[in-house]
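The freezer alarm interrupted the setup, so I double-checked each line after restarting. Inputs confirmed:
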Amino acid sequence: MAAPPDPQFVLRGTQSAVHALHFCGGAQGREHQRLLSGSLSGLVHIWSLQTRRAIATLDGHGGQCVIWLQTLPQGPQLLSQGRDLKLCLWDLAEGRNAVVDSVDLESVGFCRGSILARGQQRWMLAVPGRGSDEIQILEMPSKTSVCTLKPEADAKPGMPMCLELRQTDSSPRPRLLAGYEDGSVALWDVSERKVCSRIACHTEPVMGLDFDSQKARGVSGSAEKALAVWSLDEQQALQVRGTHQLTNPGISDVKIRPDRKLLATAGWDHRVRVFHWRTMKPLAVLAFHSAAVHCVAFAADGLLAAGSKDRRISVWSLYPPS
Amino acid sequence: MAVFDTPEEAFGILRPICVQLTKAQTVENVEQLQAQLRTVSDSALQELQQYILFPLRFALKTPGPKRERLIQSVVECLTFVLSSTCVKEQELLQELFSELSTCLYSPSSQKPAAVSEELKLAVIQGLSTLMHSAYGDIILTFYEPSILPRLGFAVSLLLGLAEQEKSKQIKVAALKCLQVLLLQCDCDDHPRSLDELEQKQLGDLFASFLPGISTALTRVITGDFKQGHSIVVSSLKIFYRTVGFIMADEQLRSISEVQARPSVEDRVAKLMVHREADWVKNTGDKLAILIKKIIECASVHPHWKVRLELIELVEALLWKCSQSLVQSAGPLLMVLVGLLNDESPEVQAQCNKVLRHFADQKVVVGSRAFADILSENLHSLATSLPRLMNSQDDQGKFSTLSLLLGYLKLLGPKVNFVLNSVAHLQRLSKALIQVLELDVADIKIVEERRWNSNHLSASPKTATRPWSQIQRRYFRFFTDERIFLLLQQVCQLLGFYGNLHLLVDHFMDLYHESVVYRKQAAMILNELVAGAAGLEVENLHEKHIKTSPEELREIVTSLLEEYTSQENWYLATCVEAEEMGEELTMKQSGLQAITSGAHTCQVASFPAFSKPSPTICSMNSNIWQICIQLEGIGHFAYALGTDFRLLLMSALYPVLEKAGDQTLLISQAATSAMMDICHACGYDSLQQLINQNSDYLVNGISLNLRHLSLHPHTPKVLEVMLRNSDASLLPLVADVVQDVLATLDQFYDKRATSFVSVLHALLAALAQWFPDTSDLGQLQEQSTGEEGSHLSQRTTALQDRLENITTAEDIEQFLLNYLKEKDVADGNVSEFDEEEEQSDPPKVDENDTGPHVEPPLPLQIQIATDVMERCIHLLSDKSLKIRLKVLDVLDLCVVVLQSHRNQLLPLAHRAWPPLVRRLTNDDPLAVLRAFKVLRTLGGKCGDFLRSRFCKDVLPKLAGSLVSQAPVSARAGPVYSHTLAFKLQLAVLQGLGPLCERLDLGEGDLNKVADACLIYLSAKQPVKLQEAARRVFSHLMKVDPDCTWFLLNELYCPEQLTPPHPALHPVRLRGGPGPQNPYAANVLLLLRELR
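Predicted 3D structure, all chains:
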């Protein structure tokens, strides 16, 4: 690896550790592209990538850490999950920033939620449930509970740590990938409420996972010193494809770039690591932050953002997609 | 005054005189007649016109030699009659015309008769009046072909007069008359305009005279400038009126190929001209030559009215005869183009008006022919431009460039035809680049240094053109400032009308191509962009669509990127060693090198050294390069307006970096660029600009700190930013300070200097942003004030006691008090003191930290703690410069941290050992600064410090003072240059205030006093004596009594008388007498004490 690259720019001003990042609105060009960041102090900042400044601050979690941010595919609505046991739905259209709805959560863990669009105005939401090992599936925006996914009595996987709802073209059934505290990743068939497949990838809790449905390959990072790459076969069975050893333990987030070329990991060792997704060849170690990196996010145009405990968000332009 | 209204009466009066005149033609008679005529009303005169004219005409017609005087008076009288009456018969008109004309006929030669000037003038006026007096249509019937010979005679006569007479009056009159004769008179007497047919007939008639008129007038116009502008102006007027009438496209269009048989005799018919196509072409060719001559002469005529009239000529001819005079169109347009930048505002305005008029009417652009001609001209001008720029003098360059500018203005968007041709664009750009070459030999540019760092206080002035007061530039190929302005305009117009992408690409290529072109290319690019925004350009072509803001922004962004890229922005502008400033000595030698270089530059008598050394020239060139680029950034901001705000994230950092540059010129240019940015983006002041965009700056700083070797100036930017921001930025600052400290930790050895100065700026800013409520400074002032008053009270009390006759009881009381105080001082000192000490600090603590949970420290305290931590390491740096600066920073750290004893004390504890070394074993300068730090520290952690000071420092200092004293006492004058002397001085200077601040106990004070007493000796160097005196002045404030005693022990100036006879007289050890070496200083001090 040659000289390590510099961030394209750095966003400062969250005034507390950054725990969630999410890009939105990149389709209409850079002028409208926004980066949303959720901080330890419970604030959500909306950054304009054109002026590189915060254009709005949302305060809806009573000073509790915001751990997950997600815009809905239909229209300018934002979901924010905070550790105040609330999931807020914000209306961001035309410069508004008001909470239009909220869901009360029942778990105070670190597990981020996940959504799946189900038609024009409907979407499915997965969040950690009441019991420590349960996952709750909700139909939104009606907030009706669809089901609760509870592992079999003898499994004891511990708390869910990360969730990923998905639906393949081949089957209309929604499935849920969940990483558990014991280091295992499970694939749930939501409608049948049963685990299709389950593999033990890590010996430590799974901190983040991402899945590439085209290649049917996923990656997960945990508190240990390795990344696990696994795949999903036709029979909906998970198989570990390999593990990738890291120099320092602790991965708090993994993200695959939308064009499926790159994988980025957020490390406790203050580094963001970038891998070639297909070959898992390490491409770059982005050393900028001075504290643990909590989250990474990719924009539609390939821009990478990393949020860290050092209160900064670094934005990188790496191997720009052609 | 007319007395005779009716013809009858008038006839009665006039008849006798007329009869008499007919009989005897004398001047007297004529004058008598004229006198009488004045008494007759106009209407009566009209009736009697023929009658009165008869004797006059008779007088003219009488054969035989005549006296000129008589003819003159007759003509004048005739003129008078005609001026009051009309000629209603064509025959009369013709006859009078002939008769008047022949007055000046000389049969012998072609020239006008050699008669007196008065007569000539009278005849000319007569003719003129006659033509005006012709009634209604008579005048038209007068101009029938048969009149041709006679008219021709008159015309040639008048032309001859105009051309050859000496009298200006006659010339003017002749021209005026000619104008009348050709029916081009300005006056209102001509009742109606001619219809088409009439015009055509007249045109046919006058066409015969065209060659004569045009050539003669051309001779007049191109004649001597001295002949007066009015003649030239009239000639020009007649020329274009006549030509414009005869060659009018409108008339010529309706002329048939075949000549209609004129109903006149052959002799006359031969004179007639048929204006068919061939004739038009031939005449046009011939006229083109004349017009060219006229233009050459009139366009440079010194009088502006002539040039103004020339514009009229151009307008009239281009307007009326654009087809018939197509060959002349080029030169004619050139006139307009050239006069656009005339020095006379009237001419400029008229020229602009005409151009605008043409543009509105599409005369130029609408007609392909004209556009072609213009493009053709521009092509050829572009081709010859490099040569012209090379060979012409300033005046020549000025007119050539004016011409170029005019073409651009006229062609407007069509200029792209020329630009699209690669060869021509190359020619054009080559010429511009060549002529814009700067003279970079000026040595001052490199030499001038910016010393004052507080330059950013200036607020943007409200100038419409902010960059008008730029630093004067010296060009190699011209000196006239106007030429530069013209070049600017040319570039702006190119940017406005031309294809900006094409031009920017082209000049950017040149920019890259060679260092030789780079400055000029950048200058041109700057103006192109300014022009493209169209803010200064006067648009003659309303339909022209400007470059869109988005496009412009895109172009500006790429230019900005280029300008501020590593290889174009960080150019060597001074000797590297000096820039780094690592060593004071290096710096000096660097400066010397430059100044000596400067001398060789200036001394021309040594041919070997007469050329400036290439390095200085190249540094100069680099400085200009940066200045031009900075100016460009200002232009860009100006061009984009508030859109530029988006570019601030990449532009502000580099500009600010240059604002802190050592080179005066660069720093000025950067400041003015920032002013432009302020203007464009709507910031009120530079402070506001910096303050509101600190996030962008911090981003740049933080990223550049990662590559410090590439961006050695980064700390400077932070410094400038800190100086111009306020407490609201603390979180941002805190963020970047972490980076700074981290980088500092990496580069302790290499770049500590710049970092230490940043830390200094940072702490100074913090101290300013967060003034402590229980401010040390205030306390200090108060306490010194109190102490002062306290002291004076005590001394006066003492004096009272001493001076008044005191009773034994008083003395007893005094002694009791003394013993009690002494007791307290000996036994209960600590308790008493502690109480006092403790009653203060806990309050402060309570204010800041709650009793239960320790809240996070304020950011500024965290920063100061972190910085102080580094200072502790840097205190022992090898470089004195750094140590000094670090001591200053440390001082500021203490000020900021003073309210947080919990943080301050441990750090002070750790800082102590290196600080002691500074005090006891360092350069005198460092010693002094260390004392200052101690003083500040003493204010807040006095207790802690006092014991440490007394234990660690005082003995060493006192010891060294004592041991050095004999040396300095013996030393000669050279001693004051030694290090030992400076150390002694520093210690003496530092001790006094510190003792006072630390409130030392008696024992330690005695130590200090003992060590310093020796220096009160007159044998010591004067400076040391002064310093020692100052130590005692401070000691006096702490303990006046003791000091008094000590001093008196040294030298007792007076016998002390006890206050009460019961007491023994006191004898102090200090012997009186002038031979005592301490006498002088002790006396001074005692006086002060009293």
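Quick read of the result. The radius of gyration of chain B is 50 Å.
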